[in-house]
Amino acid sequence: MDFSLTAEEADLAELCRNFADREIAPRAPAAWERAECPTDLLREMGELGLLGMLVPEGWGGIGMSTIGFVAALEQIGRADQSVAAALQAHVTIGSMPLLLFGTDEQRERWLRPLAEGRVLGAFGLTEPGAGSDTRGIATRAERRDGGWVVNGTKAFISNAGTDMSFGVTVLARTGTGDRGPRFGSFVIEKDTPGFTMGPKVRGIGWKGLDTRELYFDDVWVPDDHLLGDPDLGLGQFLRTLEVGRISIAALSLSLTQAVLDLSLAYAAERRQFGRPISDFQAIQFKLADMATELEAARWLTYRAAWLRDTGQPFLKEAAMAKLKASRLAAAAASEAVQIHGGVGYMLDSPVARFYCDSKVLEIGEGTNEIQHVVIARALGC
Ligand SMILES: Cc1cc2nc3c(=O)[nH]c(=O)nc-3n(C[C@H](O)[C@H](O)[C@H](O)COP(=O)(O)OP(=O)(O)OC[C@H]3O[C@@H](n4cnc5c(N)ncnc54)[C@H](O)[C@@H]3O)c2cc1C
C-alpha cells in the first residue's frame, strides 16, 4: 500500500499551499473579526479549478482523486478553517448529489457552473426537529401541476446565502411506504418564489462560513428539479455524506497541523525559568503526543480516501477517520492553547481561533456519536 502523492496530487497540494500562504492566511484575522464569507477568495479558487476538484473534466471539474482532495484541504485549512469549510461543503455535499444522481441535463445545468467555480453549492438535510435522526425530516414535497410543491424549514445550511450561491439541494418527504417515510432530493434555485432565508447564524467558530435557516413556503419546482428517484433521496443523501466525512477528517488534520506548528514555534521562543519552555518535558510530551496522533489520524484519512479512489467500500473507514481526526483536532487545539498560556487564550491569537473552530468538527456531517453508531453497525452490532 502506497499513499504517497502522484505528481498531479503533489502539484495541487503545492498550488494550494502557495495560495493559502499568499492569499488566505494574511486575511484570516480580519475575516474572523468581520465574520463574512470571503466569496472573492472562493471565486479565485474557482478560477484555479479548486471548486471542481472531485468532478470529472467532462463536467467542468479537474477530476482529482480523493487523496489529492485531502492533500489540498490540508493546505487550505492550515490558513483559514472557514474558507476550507466552505470549499469542502461545496465540493462534497454541495456538488456530489448532482454528479452521482443527476441526469446529463441536470449536470449541464447545475453541476458544470459549480465545478467551474462560478457558483457555490449547498446541501439541505438538517431541520430544527431533525438532525442526527434524518428520518424525522418534516419538509414535504407534494406532486402538483406537473411538478412538486415544497414546504418546510431547514436549519444550519451552509453556502446557501452568499452572493455566489445558486440555491440548494434539499431532502423532502415525498410519501410513506411499508417501511416508513420516503424522501426525494430537489434542486431549489435561489430566486424561486416562496424560498426565503434567515440571517447568517453566529457560531463560536467557522465565523466566515455562511450558515442559515432556509424557509420553503409553497415553493413550486418542475419535475426536472427532482434528483434521481423520488423515494430514494435519503439513501442518496447518506451516500453523499460518506465523502463529506473524509473531508471533515481532512479539515481536522489541517487544524491539528496548524496548532502543532504554532505550538512548536511558541515553545521554542517563550522563555520561563531562564530557558525555552520547550526544554520542559511536560511541554515536549504534549508536542510528541500531538505529532504521533496526527500521524495516526492522517493515515486513517488517507486510507479512507484511497478506498474511495480504488472503488472499494469506505463507509466504516470514513466514519473512523472523521471520529479520530476530529477528536484529535479538538484535543490538540486545547493543548495548544495550554502551551501558549494566557497569550493563547486571547481572541486575537491564531491558536485561539483554531480552538474555537475545532469544536464543530465533532458535530458537522454527523456527530461523533453518530460516527460511533455507523462504526458499530459495520462491526455487526
Ligand atoms: C456550522 C454548521 C454547519 C452546518 N452545515 C450544514 C449543512 O450545510 N447542511 C446540513 O444539512 N446540515 C448542516 N449542519 C447540521 C449538522 O449536520 C447537525 O448539526 C448535526 O448533524 C447534528 O444534528 P443536531 O444539531 O440536530 O443535533 P442532534 O441530532 O439533536 O444531537 C444532539 C446530541 O444528541 C446526540 N445523539 C443524537 N442521536 C443519537 C443517537 N442515536 N445515539 C447517540 N447520541 C445521539 C448527538 O450526537 C448530539 O450529541 C451544520 C451544523 C453546523 C453547526
Q: Concise description?
A:
By secondary structure, the chain is α+β, with helices and mostly antiparallel strands.
Could you name the CATH topology of the largest domain?
Butyryl-CoA Dehydrogenase, subunit A, domain 3
User: Percentage of helical residues?
Assistant: 40-55%
**Oligomeric state, counting identical vs distinct chains:** single chain
Q: CATH superfamily membership of the largest domain, which one? A: Butyryl-CoA Dehydrogenase, subunit A, domain 3
CATH top level of the largest domain is Mainly Alpha
Class from secondary-structure proportions: alpha+beta
Kindly report the spatial arrangement of strands forming the biggest sheet. 1-4-5-8
The fraction of residues assigned to DSSP E strands is 15-25%
The largest pleated sheet is described as:
4 strands, mixed
Counting H and I runs of at least 4 residues, what is the number of helices? 12
Order of helices and strands: HHHHHHHEEEEEEEEHEEHHHH
Give the CA-based shape.
globular
Low-confidence stretches: none
Query: What would you say the CATH architecture of the largest domain is?
Result: Up-down Bundle
Q: What's the β-strand tally?
A: 10
- Report the mean per-residue pLDDT as an integer: 96
